[in-house]
Amino acid sequence: MNRLMLIAVTLAAILAPSFCASEPAGTCTPDNCKIEDNCRCSSGSGPFEGDLTEYPQLVTLAFDEAVTDDIYGLWNDLLLSRSNPDGNPIGATFFVPHEYTNYQRVNDLYNLGFEIAVHSVSKNPLQSYWRTASESLLEQEFGGQKQIISKFANIPEDHILGVRTPQLQFAGNDSILAYRAANLTYDSSWPTLPSKPLFPYTLDYLSTQECNLGGSCPNEAFPGFWVLPILDLHSADGGWCNTLSSCNVTGSVDDIANWLCNEIDIVRNSTRAPLTLSVNSYWFNFTENSLAGLTKCLDTLQESKDVFLVTQKQVIEWVSNPVKIEDFKTDDAEDQQTNCNQYNCLLDKGGEKRYMKACAPCPAVYPWLGNPNGDKP
Ligand SMILES: *[C@@H]1O[C@H](CO)[C@@H](O)[C@H](O)[C@H]1NC(C)=O
Ligand SMILES: *[C@@H]1O[C@H](CO)[C@@H](O)[C@H](O)[C@H]1NC(C)=O
Ligand SMILES: *[C@@H]1O[C@H](CO)[C@@H](O)[C@H](O)[C@H]1NC(C)=O
Ligand SMILES: *[C@@H]1O[C@H](CO)[C@@H](O)[C@H](O)[C@H]1NC(C)=O
Ligand SMILES: *[C@@H]1O[C@H](CO)[C@@H](O)[C@H](O)[C@H]1NC(C)=O
Q: Which GO terms describe its biological process (predicted)?
């Protein structure tokens, strides 16, 4: 054996363990997976015992559109001035995609106490793109967007923890590997049928959740990484749906409000698994009374003593420490304050022009995949 080969063989032996560190996930049991170790099995039963009605029903309003001025105004009108049963302002989670986003408005949302999370850089509309993307491309999509948000909306990286993949499409283990490489700690992309309302869980062990959307779901062990299942709602035509706009519910303001509040009541009356309601503004364009119906249902919730609108981050905190209603406090997010020196940039994106409002000096080019800082001309 010549020396070069010997070095190669030795190197391979050293590197091997880290390359093979990924293993198929094993079966989860309450003995091998404890919440004290930041581990929870995928399960339809809650983290609490005793009388269901003593515990809060958590609901997260989730948004994944570009944060433009118009969209910001819309969500502001819908969300501001609402409070939870504990008197604190409600929470919500924004999964922010890059293109057309105004990062000054993202900074505003953060300062208002909302959670800022990652959607992707490109928000490519093709499902096949997300199903077949390599891990390194996904790192550029998710890790890159985390960097862009942090830099241009001036939000600390360690406050950006969540991610939703576009079209809710996973590329198997590679999606979670890419999330982890970006220090993201939870996913909100995995829908589950109304008949199987799962609580949030970690990927230390094999998920029992069905993989229904055509992509492949992760089945490697990812210790401490959280999945917040999206509980599907019942659609108008007897099926199920994972965003309010795809449920095809039509009718009067009351019809839409009653449908939505009834969907919340079904879960609230049965297991109190946390609910994620994904809202897209195009729903308001093509379904008459949808915005008024949504508003009316949210108004009704204001009168309840046990339904809390919170961020997804807080859902994980509660599942880890499932306190009763009287001890539950909505995150007041008072520490969540960061300044914004405003820069209005006109940038080049491969020959096209893009306006980008930012809280950092204008970069050389429009930030994009592989160039999140926009500093490579
Ligand atoms: C995920 O990784 C595990 C362990 O390496 C492997 O057995 C499995 O086939 C992978 N799953 C997918 C969907 O690629
Ligand atoms: C992830 O976090 C670790 C530890 O805090 C840090 O060293 C690393 O640079 C971070 N990686 C990314 C891509 O942010
Ligand atoms: C909603 O209606 C569209 C168009 O009619 C249909 O393709 C879709 O499957 C429906 N969605 C659900 C959840 O039933
Ligand atoms: C939930 O329970 C309340 C009180 O028992 C009842 O009035 C309501 O009809 C129930 N709603 C659903 C959707 O199960
Ligand atoms: C929806 O309506 C708003 C306000 O009327 C408009 O600005 C926006 O372009 C419309 N969006 C779509 C997708 O049609």
A: carbohydrate metabolic process
Could you identify the atom of ligand 4 that is nearest to the CA of residue 268? 1
Residue of 69, 91, 74 whose CA lies nearest to 82: 91
**Which whole number is the average pLDDT over 207-228?**
94
Does residue 34 lie in a domain region?
A: no
Nearest to 344 by CA among 365, 358, 324, 364: 358
Q: Is 374 among the domain residues?
A: no
- For ligand 1, residues with CB inside 6 Å are 22-24, 172-173, 216, 219-220
Ligand 4, atom 3: closest residue by C-alpha = 269
Q: Which residues contact 307 (CB under 8 A, 6 or more apart)?
A: 56, 57, 59, 85, 264, 268, 301
Model confidence pLDDT, tens digit, residues 292-326? 999 999 999 999 999 999 999 999 999 999 999 99
Residue 22 has a pLDDT of 67
Rounded CA gap, 316 and 326, in Å?
A: 18
If one counts the domains in the chain, the total is 1
Report CA(282)–ligand 5 centroid distance (Å): 7
The CATH number given to whatever domain includes residue 107 is: 3.20.20.370
DSSP three-state, residue 38: coil
Q: Is residue 179 part of a domain?
A: yes
Place of tokens 């820069």: 343
Question: Comparing C-alpha atoms, which of 137, 162, 138 is closest to residue 149?
Answer: 162
Long-range contacts of 260-266 (CB under 8 A, 24+ apart): 260/293, 260/294, 260/297, 261/297, 261/300, 261/301, 263/233, 263/234, 264/57, 264/59, 264/297, 264/301, 264/307, 266/194, 266/234
d(CA 117, CA 124): 18
Grouping H, G, I as helix, E, B as strand and the rest as coil, residue 259 is: helix
Report yes or no on 2 lying in a domain. Answer: no
For residue 28, the CA-to-ligand 2 centroid distance in Å is: 28
pLDDT range class, residue 23, cuts 50, 70, 90: confident
Rounded Cα distance between 369 and 129, Å, is 14
Threshold 0.85, pTM exceeds: yes
What are the backbone dihedrals phi and psi of residue 24, each rounded to the nearest 5 degrees, phi first?
-60, 140
Residue pair 158/125 in contact by the 8 Å Cβ criterion: no
Mean pLDDT of 105-111: 97
**Ligand 3 and 248: CB distance under 6 A:** yes
